[in-house]
């Protein structure tokens, strides 16, 4: 058994390499003007993931729901609990587990690229030991909240903190969690069993033993349950029938779930994700693969709540679109809830490059508009102005 585990984890075995920089090879970005225009979220019901700009493999066919919602919870009428109370508890939990979006200001020796590299490696470890998506996202939450509380963590301890967070998460979530020595093994001597044991207590005390957040993947699973139930039962009306405990059993399209989870995996590597609540991250990723009505019905969110996150996610969705989803051919229903290493630092860098290009494009358009408004009737200025960028056409 040990030999088998050794072989499986050899690919993710890494000494203290979390300080590596993200690969800086730039990838070409196609049709940036059109993408910016098509992906800008409007208050009118314009679909951000329209089929004109995203192929069918990124936009599943789904039924439309009414945009008038009288219920204060998207959950169906449960016969084993008060759905409104359950929903309010979920929202309260989402508000109480906070991360600091400026946590790197607390640690002078740490950089966002180090966090991304560590999380990418933890993805590999999860795949090597067949750990669930929930285990990975628990570890991510523990790691971010720990750094949000502590100050000046030395970079040499970053891998120890990360692997210990994964060890704690596995003990909470997995039926048969790997032994502690399996986690020290993948560190290739950088972290000992005793160091993991000692760090475990430090982390849990720092977090005050608050170890049950509703992670982005847990929110996504909840949204998918509502989505699937609504499509099957067509219950978006005033008189909803009661639902039993079978609602809690995942029974949704695994391929679509993996699509959205893949986008969340990539987005959460970026430190910008620390700005948003987990429910907003999950709902925004869901938006990119469905449409406005579906998201409003299944998530209980408003466009005002999602707008900034949906727009922030656009470069990551474009990066995924550019490389495709060929990895799905190796996945089946049983593996949809296992954390697989389908993202990479290169893909993250591509997304961040697109993000920088979009920001530069916005700045260029703003400066051009500002200059023309100062002297709009000056012939020399008008003659020298470049053609109107595609993004500035149409209504805003």
UniProtKB/TrEMBL annotation:
Polar residues bias spans: 1-10
The protein's name in its UniProt record: G1/S-specific cyclin-E1-like
Alphabetized InterPro entries for the sequence: Cyclin (IPR039361), Cyclin-like_dom (IPR013763), Cyclin-like_sf (IPR036915), Cyclin_C-dom (IPR004367), Cyclin_N (IPR006671), Cyclins_cyclin-box (IPR048258)
Family as reported in the entry's similarity comment: Belongs to the cyclin family.
GO biological process assignments: cell division; mitotic cell cycle
Pfam families: Cyclin_C, Cyclin_N
Keywords: Cell cycle, Cell division, Cyclin
Entry annotated with the keyword Aminoacyl-tRNA synthetase: no
CDD domains assigned: CYCLIN_CCNE_rpt2 (cd20520)
Domain Cyclin C-terminal as annotated: residue spans: 214-344
Organismal lineage: Eukaryota, Metazoa, Ecdysozoa, Arthropoda, Chelicerata
Superkingdom, taxonomy of origin: Eukaryota
Annotated region (Disordered), positions in chain: 1-26, 374-396
Domain Cyclin-like: 120-205
């Amino acid at each position: 058994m040990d030999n088998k585990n050794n072989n499986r984890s050899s690919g993710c075995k890494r000494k203290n390499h979390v300080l590596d920089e993200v690969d800086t090879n730039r990838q070409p970005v196609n049709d940036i003007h059109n993408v910016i225009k098509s992906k800008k979220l409007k208050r009118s019901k314009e679909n951000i993931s329209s089929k004109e700009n995203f192929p069918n493999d990124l936009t599943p066919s789904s039924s439309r729901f009414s945009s008038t919602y009288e219920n204060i919870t998207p959950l169906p009428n449960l016969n084993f609990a008060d759905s409104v109370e359950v929903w309010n508890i979920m929202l309260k939990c989402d508000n109480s587990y906070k991360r600091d979006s400026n946590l790197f200001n607390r640690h002078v020796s740490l950089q966002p690229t180090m966090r991304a590299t560590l999380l990418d490696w933890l993805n590999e470890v999860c795949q090597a030991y067949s750990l669930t998506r929930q285990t990975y996202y628990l570890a991510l939450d523990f790691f971010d909240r720990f750094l949000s509380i502590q100050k000046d963590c030395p970079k040499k301890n970053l891998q120890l903190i990360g692997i210990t967070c994964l060890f704690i998460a596995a003990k909470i979530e997995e039926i048969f969690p790997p032994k502690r020595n399996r986690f020290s093994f993948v560190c290739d001597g950088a972290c000992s069993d005793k160091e993991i044991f000692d760090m475990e207590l430090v982390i849990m005390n720092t977090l005050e033993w608050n170890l049950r957040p509703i992670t982005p993947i847990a929110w996504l699973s909840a949204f998918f349950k509502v989505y699937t139930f609504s499509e099957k039962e067509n219950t978006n009306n005033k008189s909803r029938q009661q639902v039993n405990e079978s609602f809690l059993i995942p029974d949704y399209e695994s391929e679509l779930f993996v699509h959205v989870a893949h986008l969340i995996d990539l987005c959460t590597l970026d430190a910008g994700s620390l700005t948003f609540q987990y429910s907003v991250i999950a709902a925004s990723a869901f938006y990119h693969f469905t449409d406005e009505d579906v998201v409003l019905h299944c998530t209980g969110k408003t466009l005002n709540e999602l707008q900034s996150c949906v727009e922030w996610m656009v470069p990551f969705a474009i990066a995924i679109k550019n490389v495709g989803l060929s990895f799905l051919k190796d996945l089946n229903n049983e593996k949809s809830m296992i954390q697989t290493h389908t993202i990479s630092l290169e893909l993250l860098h591509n997304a961040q490059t697109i993000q920088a290009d979009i920001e530069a494009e916005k700045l260029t358009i703003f400066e051009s508009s500002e200059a023309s408004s100062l002297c709009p009737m000056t012939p020399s200025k008008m003659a020298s102005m470049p053609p109107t960028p595609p993004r500035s056409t149409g209504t805003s």
